[in-house]
């Protein structure tokens, strides 16, 4: 039995931004709400309900023309389509955001000119409302100006037909969560039956509210928000002997199908919960589950949570104990409040990107005779590293070496380029994260020469030196969910050695099954990771590979072999 008289939150669109706090609570705690003053005329809602009724009165052979081969389970679905679908019948529109798909739906069913007008106008306005609501929900979480126009938006017109008293109390749609990011439901305001589960496991009747639109968070909302948005479980039960109509619009996923977590919701306290995946792969997995509930369908996409410590340089010396534990037990950590301006990090990424776009004969001028493997390394340098390309500065702590690097490559005559490279080198080489603060056995570790290597990967990586042994990735693919085609992944690494080299590099291919094993002989490595493209992994004490999620504005630091030797194998 459901509890009576409990009403889900009601959001007044005419009262924004005053409603944002209320919307945030509804989206993160309840997972659903009803919307009033949404701008869709009541008369149009009524006309669409009557149009829906007429669609289900069409001959069976006409209904079956509603076929969407691009949708895993989308098309006309008669009653008994599934074992638990005794009462349920539905039509679908593949992407209701596309006028062509809406018109194709109308043409296939031979609807009248008036019905075509109603359907076209209705879904146009409902889609407009969807864009507004998705933007408002995200804004309530603190992100302003996000657009969902490039996301697919499937529509379903649904009927639940109850014909006898024995049907009352029966379940017409079993308990489930929606696979969408957001669902807008134009429910039948004359016939109840929709129920949600509250935090205590109680079924709550969602009483019809005349003129209101019901909105709920789906599985993709949970993934995209890194678990901040709450996915509500719901079902439909028979309340009376009649036919119940409802029309749903489902904001599914970006049109390229790739689903990932918004970077703004990932930080040291909130590690990434789910792998990136393709929406249709998720739907296939979901369809294998007996119960269409996010906790079950998403479990195969859950990531092993492994939190790398983040050292706050503004909180030293209070962080020293945490820093010592990270250095001696894990071998790596993140650094925040490192004083490197975000604007400089962004400019350095673009500067590195431009370096790999210069002609190969110019890149070959980058020769460092003092380094065993220094200077420019093309993708053909090693058969084990076909995606890897890099440039190097012998001693980034030396202004002369940095200037020589820029001059050798005819680096942009624009002063911003040289200033960016020099500014980055000065920050990293003169004041390395933890360089003046890492105390071991009473001794203070300070940087020597700074060896810089810029690595270019189709990710574009900027790395100083090469990361240490703890990051060995021989025989391990980059990441099974890192779709790198078309991406440039950029990171910057500064390695502090006993006496130091900066490396700029980039992975050129997307063959995630091939990777080389670098030589990690440095003392300390500082890595400015690409915030947009993952791929860095570490190996834990049990031999498991762990994805390292880029944290915006945070630098990654790890200990190398020389550090282990110098500190008597403490690291």
Automatic annotation (TrEMBL):
This is Fe2OG dioxygenase domain-containing protein. InterPro entries: DIOX_N, IPNS-like_FE2OG_OXY, IPNS-like_sf, Iron_ascorbate_oxido_reductase, Oxoglu/Fe-dep_dioxygenase_dom. It comes from Dendrobium thyrsiflorum. Its cofactor is L-ascorbate. It comes from the Eukaryota. GO terms for molecular function: metal ion binding; oxidoreductase activity. PROSITE patterns: FE2OG_OXY (PS51471). Keywords: Iron, Metal-binding, Oxidoreductase. It holds the Pfam family 2OG-FeII_Oxy. Residues 149-254 form the Fe2OG dioxygenase domain. The keyword Glycosyltransferase does not apply.
